[in-house]
Known about the structure:
Bound molecules: 6-O-phosphono-beta-D-fructofuranose
Strand order of the largest sheet: 3-2-1-6-7-14-15
Amino acid sequence: xxxxxxxxxxxxxxxxxxxIRAAVRTLVRDYGLEVVGIxxxxxxxxxxxxxxxTLETIRGILPKGGTLLRTTNRGNPFEYPVPxxxxxxxxxxxxxxxxxxxxxxxxxxxIIAIGGDGTLKIAQRLADMGIPMVxxxxxxxxxxxxxxxxxxxxxxxxxxxxxxxxxxxxAESHDRVMILEVMGRNAGWIALYSGIAGxxxxxxxxxxxxxxxxxxxxxxxxxAEGAKFDIMVVAEGAKRVGGEEAYLDKASRRLGGIAxxxxxxxxxxxxxxxxxxxxxxxxxxxxxxxxxxxxxxRFGKAAGDLVATKQFxxxxxxxxxxxxxxxxxxxxxxxxxxxxxxxxxxxxxSLGISFGDGA
Length: 359
Ligand code: F6P
């Protein structure tokens, strides 16, 4: 084995460059292997967009956000848009065999795929076709059961917590209800962690649909106790009891805007002004915090070891602070959601935080 390829797929996430750097260092320094970067995820295996990854080309990337190799949410070789087909027509073809041929032609003996749910599913299918594949999980949402944490999550939580802190002072000055909408897809982890860290009064998460009346009574109870403002952190996937998620674009299932619905649900029942902040991609950009740099570096080293020792079809993970590996198939089949009866929710309740569930 001589040449290893690394790619990043799906949405970006703070810490991707730290994984790339650690994997390259491990493969070059410990195993004397050549490493190439595959640009734009699996698409780069169709277009043969390959760049050398050497100790020189990765210098200085550890603290940088984004990904040196660029990434895309499109480019699934199993459902690749047919070139020249009318825009929006969604006509796709299976180009996976081309990918397999290109991998052989390019002399790539093993691939490290760093990505979220979609990327891991593609990696698994290519592994099933005999491609020597190792995976590294990535998502700010922290919604994979196979690993205690994904890198990028704690950075997103830190950004969201900073936003909660900033909203506190302006809420207090104006006697307002401030609603902060954070990312997380259908998992409430970012909202739960940043809400606790920022001292929110109300946290709404997808796993615990909210009753508008419960939010209103929390606001009134706080007013009765003398508090003239409220801080609410809402996960983008939250929904009202019996309601639906809010989508920016239903066709592509892009979540967003639930905070405005919450505001509309409660405004007429309270006498405080409401303001909404949708934090968006700020949570995904910029430099990873130290925790994520370390986790990403540990994942990159472990992925380098797996591929160099030919332990293919596996994904790195962390459990009880130990880096382990699991079959990629396990990781793609089990999402991780907040347990409404779990310790984190119980802790939040003891701190006086309401989940708008009437409990
Ligand atoms: O999965 C990561 C994530 O940032 C989600 O939290 C969010 O819903 C989604 O990606 C946004 O995707 P896009 O960058 O395509 O808008």
